[in-house]
Amino acid sequence: MKNINMKKIGIALFAILVLIQFIRPERNGSWEKSENDISLAINVPSDVYQILQTSCYDCHSNHTTYPWYTNIQPIGLWMQHHVDEGKEELNFSEFKTYKPKRQKHKLEEIAEQVNEYEMPLSSYTLIHKNAVLTPEQNVALVSWAKQEFDKIVIPVEAK
Ligand code: HEC
User: Among 149, 46, 31, 36, which residue's Cα sits nearest to residue 95?
Assistant: First the structure.
């Protein structure tokens, strides 16, 4: 009896796994560089920009590069969830639209999160090995964010 139940559960789980393959999360795939991209708003040296694109843009921009395995559910759904959440917090493709106060705050957050190795998310770098920041890249990103943070002057009335 017990065995039959296990078999039924197994079949049901397999059926669910097959069925969810038909779910196709919407893709975050704008190829064009946004006119509101961070590199058009503040100074982003090319080495820093390279790091942002490799290690952050998948979740924090309007363009995600999807590896083949994100076609498999629930991996794709999980990825989509991170992209939605990441973009909501910080979208480098929309950075230019942020008010100075928000830009400054986000730069502060970047320096903090990267300095504490909170970003890029470890669940992501587990698979995306190329997104792992080397100690040099980590330092470059943090000092860039701090430098740009200092440069942004918030207009008095917005303080
Ligand atoms: C796998 C997706 C993913 C990648 C890659 C990623 N992030 Fe995030 N990031 C998130 C998510 C999800 C959140 C919001 C939830 C949280 O804080 O964990 C977030 C939050 C943040 C925040 C906090 C924003 C705020 O105002 O509180 C900053 C700053 C940040 N990320 C910077 C970065 C930087 C810089 C990189 C690259 C070095 C990066 N992230 C890479 C998914 C990602």
Answer: 36
Query: From atom 20 of ligand 1, which residue's Cα is the shortest distance away?
Result: 86
Residue showing tokens 């991170």: 82
The pTM of this model reads: 0.87
- All residue ranges of the chain with pLDDT < 70 are 1-2, 31, 158-159
Q: What is the pLDDT of residue 149?
A: 97
- Map out the domains of the chain as residue ranges: 26-158
**Residue with CA at minimum distance from ligand 1 atom 11:** 86
User: How remote is the CA of residue 146 from the centroid of ligand 1, in Å?
Assistant: 17
